[in-house]
Automatic annotation (TrEMBL):
UniProt-listed InterPro entries: DUF58 (IPR002881), vWFA_dom_sf (IPR036465)
Origin species: Pedobacter duraquae
Protein name per Swiss-Prot or TrEMBL: Uncharacterized protein DUF58
Pfam families (UniProt xref): DUF58
Domain DUF58: 45-251
Length: 295
């Protein structure tokens, strides 16, 4: 199963819908299938018939076996709206080896969308890039999922993260229970990304933040490069990696702890993902959050 979730293998599957299907089928085969449920009614228990009960709920097989009337009670699964939010600013073009952060984000989002659709959830997509928001409304059908895959395939990161003026109306009037999944590298010039998270968290929606970092970022190992360029501003800096690596890692650890604390204070589920890691943990985190939303 783990090979099917390996990013390097996924990137070799050019068709996004096929990659998502392959990922989810491999994932489901490796876990307890009872945790994956489709829409509809799940059996809960039997109880004795009481005057006034709907006769359509009588279980005639139980009557045949026991000669008594029983009502079959079921639990109705509550499906939700899942909004996938993708950071498509230029920093998501950062690469480590053969693929970029945006490619990892694309396959992660496609897999989550496929899994959500399989469970009967409505899926929507927002792509934040270069002072605009690309939106696909929340719907639940296979054709809509195909359109979502197409939009994911078209993402070309550029510019800086979208300013608040471009998304402040995005959540206006939103009252339906929703799970927002934000896939980002959390690179921001000021506080624009956390401003967005503030907006979402105040609406009492469940929020998952998947923070993407590459292995070369985490280890400060760029194979001898000494000049680094900011992908969003174009600014460059000279760095002696070996001399600052220890300080860099200490500051990075402090930064990640600060981000985690900020998210926790906003009741946001935060997970840092290295882009060389399989998608399995992200999918498990999604299922755990999904379970919390069921009533």
């Amino acid at each position: 199963m783990s090979k099917l979730l390996d990013p390097k293998i996924l990137m070799a599957i050019k068709e996004l819908s096929l990659a998502a299907k392959t990922t989810i089928e491999g994932f489901i085969n490796g876990i307890n299938k009872s945790t994956i449920k489709g829409p509809g009614m799940e059996f809960s228990q039997y109880r004795s018939y009481q005057p006034g009960d709907d006769l359509r709920l009588l279980d005639w097989k139980m009557f045949a076996r026991s000669d008594r009337y029983y009502i079959r009670e079921s639990e109705i699964e509550t499906n939700i709206s899942i909004r996938l939010v993708i950071d498509a600013s230029a920093s998501m073009n950062h690469s480590d080896g053969d693929y970029t952060k945006i490619e990892y984000a694309r396959y992660l989002a496609a897999s989550l969308a496929y899994l959500g659709n399989l469970q009967g959830d409505a899926i929507g997509l927002n792509v934040f890039k270069s002072h605009e928001v690309i939106s696909l409304p929340v719907k639940q059908d296979f054709q809509h999922l195909s359109r979502l895959f197409f939009q994911l395939e078209q993402i070309k990161p550029e510019g800086s993260f979208t300013k608040a003026a471009h998304y402040k109306q995005l959540y206006s009037g939103a009252s339906q229970k929703e799970l927002t999944i934000f896939i980002t590298d959390l690179y921001q010039s000021e506080t624009e990304i956390f401003d967005l998270l503030d907006t979402v968290s105040t609406l009492k929606h469940e929020v998952i933040v998947f923070h993407l970092m590459s292995a070369n970022e985490l280890a400060l190992d760029f194979k001898g490069y000494s000049t680094f360029e900011d992908l969003e501003t174009g600014a460059t800096i000279q760095v002696d990696q070996s001399s600052i690596r220890k300080t860099y890692k200490a500051k990075l650890e402090s930064y990640l702890e600060e981000v985690k604390t900020k998210a926790l204070n906003k009741r946001i589920f935060y997970r840092m993902l290295s882009t060389d890691e399989p998608l399995e943990q992200a999918l498990r985190d999604f299922l755990n959050q999904r379970k919390k939303l069921k009533v």
